[in-house]
Amino acid sequence: xxxxxxxxxxxxxxxxxxxxxxxxxxxxxxxxxxxxxxxxxxxxxxxxxxxxxxxxxxxxxxxxxxxxxxxxxxxxxxxxxxxxxxxxxxxxxxxxxxxxxxxxxxxxxxxxxxxxxxxxxxxxxxxxxxxxxxxxxxxxxxxxxxxxxxxxxxxxxxxxxxxxxxxxxxxxxxxxxxxxxxxxxxxxxxxxxxxxxxxxxxxxxxxxxxxxxxxxxxxxxxxxxxxxxxxxxxxxxxxxxxxxxxxxxxxxxxxxxxxxxxxxxxxxxxxxxxx
Length: 275
Prior knowledge:
Blueprint: E1 3-12, E2 15-17, H1 19-29, E3 33-38, H2 59-72, E4 77-82, H3 92-100, E5 105-110, H4 112-115, H5 125-134, E6 138-143, H6 150-159, E7 165-172, H7 177-183, E8 189-192, H8 198-208, E9 213-214, H9 238-244, H10 251-266
Parallel strand pairs: 1-3, 3-4, 4-5, 5-6, 6-7, 7-8, 8-9
Antiparallel strand pairs: 1-2
């Protein structure tokens, strides 16, 4: 079994990620469940320029889109809320939509780079308090800017010890060593495998324990066959997770990385509708 904890829909930032592509990839590559957020909630471009208002989508619109997707495929899809702390608030309407759809919503997603805000800034705290209120884990993009640094995620995780946090990418574009060190220091701080070399995942397992890592991919960022190859046609990193990793750790450890940790962490039941 496989749970992919980092999957996107949306048409933004030069990416077009369709629901049909996700279902296609799940069926072709044997993925049992995906945790999906909408890239349409991005607030700034790759160059950190504000996305013009006419192209912006509200966090409620994005949340409703992924909740609708989860309702169509309740045994396959769960929703993560990609919030917009730069331009929006954790207001009554957001609480209400979560309350009405809690069955389908499994996490709150922050992208400090595309919100152009330091994750440990005061603007994020009301959203963390919302997560704490509903017992939702917080998944955070790390890498690419100081705002999205691993150390800032560590700061917030330390400030909110009752909430669990995932360092998505474990510092994208780095050797992951800082993330691994920080994750090992706090019981409520975890990592995922999105664009993380297998060698770094093995190091995290040895340093922090098998329970501290879960599979994620960014699919379908490189198209509907992201699990197979990148945009240049080169073998995908995730083929190593599907094939080589199982020979480097025990079968039980492999199951923990690929689905058991995520099932427990996010409350995702496999083979049935989410409870």
